[in-house]
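For reproducibility, we list the full input for the zinc ion complex.
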Amino acid sequence: MKLPIILFTCLSLIAISCKKNNVTNGTAASITSLACNSGSFSASATANVAYSATATVPYAGGNGVVYLAGSSINSTGVTGLTASLQAGTLTSSTGNLSYTIAGTPSTSGVASFPISFGGQSCSITLTVNSGGGGGTTRTVYDSIYGAYSITSDGTYVTIKSYDQPNYKSVYWPTSNALYENFFGPTFHDSTFIKAPNSITTQNITLKIPINPSMASTHATTPMGVIGIGLDGVPFFNQYAAGGVAIGGEIHGFDQWWGHPQMSGMYHHHVEPLYLTTVYANKSALMGFLLDGFPVYGPQEIGGATPTGLDQYHGHTHATNEYPNGIYHYHFTADAPYLNGNGFYGTAGTVTQ
Ligand SMILES: [Zn+2]
Ligand SMILES: [Zn+2]
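The corresponding predicted structure, in tokenized form, follows.
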């Protein structure tokens, strides 16, 4: 009776060792390229909410062999998730690997899964949305998916961001999975000239009034952070360092019309192109200025260019988020792009 048990054990051991190396029938799985940056996920993820999805990663140059399921790979950056290769058969040319993604993301941000298969390695990245509010009632501020914390004391909402855009940029360090070269042209069809700065992690805290109101005196906007986008990336005003117009900086805007300043703080002075073309659309909510008034894209719903903008670069009408009407700013194609002659309302505070 002992022999079959020993045999079974041996077979199990062989199967385990085979699994490790993606080997079946003596031939190792082999591919010539793995395109993590073209990978996709079947569902969007929210911080602290159980997640289950399939990641699809294209490959090329397969050698036609059968491969077994892989062991689970822990996420880095945002932790709490695992990726496990599903069993399959390689084609002899291009195809997709499928990974089961499961777990509960610990926070918002970017979860990376370093995968390795058939002689190729890369990292697939998943953006985890904030969901906001730490379990409290959802508010319009919870749409700031790039924030890692959104809390409220009933008078102010406090929004915290590491300012790590979830999209590719020529300004990520080249070692980052989100680095992508860019040759232009950029905003206003300008020639692109890369600036020497790279995106680095920031820690920005904005405290903005929940019930914004018109100020009796309109403070000028400061240099640096004047508001925040849904992507957690700050808005800057229409001036470069020294209070000069940003004209010269435009050449340095990346594929999404943003750029990092000297300390690596990525920001937008003009339309945040990722939000208006990929995440949402040209008439969508883009974020908030420090005075609590919302910022919308360069079009009204229906595609019209906003009309009647005042000297602060806003006007009042109903929007999707504020059906009873609200004062709001608009991005525009031309200067001053976002804010004109100061805040319409009383600004909150920012630490950066
Ligand atoms: Zn700038
Ligand atoms: Zn409007």
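The two ends are 72 Å apart (CA to CA). Residues 85 and 99 are 4 Å apart (CA to CA). Both points were considered when choosing residues for closer inspection.
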